[in-house]
Amino acid sequence: MREGVILRCTVCKEENYIAKNDKRKDKIEVNKHCFKCNAHQTHKQKK
Ligand SMILES: [Zn+2]
Question: How many domains does the chain have?
Fold first, then answer.
């Protein structure tokens, strides 16, 4: 069973994406578009 994780914008703290963290214990960090900032921002895994 796969675990979904929430990706949160590091700038405005909006929770924009859900990612699958397969067999990874490290926190995910990705550069994605934030709809609130209306720009690409770093999104980090919540928790
Ligand atoms: Zn944002």
Answer: 1
